[in-house]
Specification:
Helix content: 40-55%
CATH topology of the largest domain: Rossmann fold
Structural class: alpha/beta
Distance between the termini: 29 Å
Largest sheet: 4 strands, parallel
Number of strands: 8
């Protein structure tokens, strides 16, 4: 069994907006013999406070506290996130503190108030990195018992999982790991020219028209390329692209009804999980084809 320090992040903890994502991850972990050990007393990664001008030191100290807790409570385990924003924040914290010794010192002065010290040994990773690099494609394919054959899916990576770090060995312009995951479970990955387009992110609240223009392009392209479903690794992308379709329909006269699911939901169903196990009951736009396969 491979063990990792697990950083759920605010949206994926139990009972929160992406709770269904977490349920599908649990299925995947059981099938692939992965154990995610939740970091005790973890806090927000600090990704959002940058937008609110929270300041550099508080933001990095929040990230460093989680890393320090990992080093203390789960030594030797990589710190795994499922949220791209959390992963980016954690990666940035490590990079900035490594490159700027004075900033590292300042952060540890803040952490000392809580009895913590960040050494710089914890390695932040994305769950997809764990799947691709540690588990591997053949081992991921082995537990598939229900093929998703007959479903055409657009792999929507979004921007945060792709830049500035990206996945090792992947193109920034045309990453293919989602396409590979789609094909791995028997579905068909359709060509998709919007796979790294931003969904508008937090602009969905502050400048909804701009965000909805982005979302329309993403969904429209999926339809144009014959997709019946969109799959993504990002909670914010999933929420924006799914939830705002109805608003776009009202404003612009479109008839969008495109399910948007997580890659782990595809894997959960393919691994024999029920619709509830895969968190499909948490969809706003029902993934009917996926549900029907889950019920077989």
């Amino acid at each position: 069994m491979k063990e990792y320090a697990f950083y759920p992040g605010c949206s994926s903890q139990k009972g929160d907006s992406a709770d269904n994502f977490l349920r599908s991850i649990d299925v995947v972990c059981k099938k692939l013999d992965i154990k995610l050990n939740e970091i005790p007393d973890w806090n927000c990664c600090g990704a959002s406070i940058a937008y609110g001008e929270g300041g550099e030191l508080p933001r990095l100290a929040l990230g460093a506290r989680n890393l320090a807790l990992t080093e203390e409570k789960l030594p030797g385990q990589d710190m795994v996130s499922v949220c791209p924003a959390c992963w980016l924040a954690n990666r940035e914290t490590v990079e900035r503190l490594h490159q700027q010794p004075q900033l590292h010192t300042d952060v540890n002065l803040a952490l000392a108030e809580a009895g913590l010290n960040y050494k710089g040994t914890a390695k932040p990773r994305h769950f997809i990195e764990v799947l691709v690099e540690d588990i591997g494609w053949e081992s991921m394919k082995a537990p598939v018992v229900k093929s998703l054959e007959g479903i055409k899916i657009a792999g929507y990576v979004g921007c945060q999982t792709n830049r500035p770090f990206g996945m090792m060995g992947e193109s920034f312009e045309n990453p293919v790991y989602l396409d590979n995951m789609i094909n791995m479970v028997g579905a068909e990955a359709v060509p998709y020219d919007q796979k790294v387009t931003c969904c508008g992110g937090a602009l969905a609240f502050s400048e909804p028209d701009k965000a909805q223009k982005q979302i329309r392009d993403i969904v429209e392209s999926a339809y144009d390329h014959g997709a019946e479903m969109i799959v993504t690794p990002c909670q914010l992308c999933q929420a924006n692209v799914e939830v705002y379709q109805s608003e776009i329909n009202k404003k612009q006269g479109t008839q969008f009804n495109m399910p948007v699911v997580y890659y782990t939901q595809l894997m959960s169903v393919a691994y024999g999980g029920s619709a509830k196990d895969a968190g499909l009951d948490g969809q706003v736009i029902k993934a009917a084809k996926l549900e029907s396969i889950a019920m077989k």
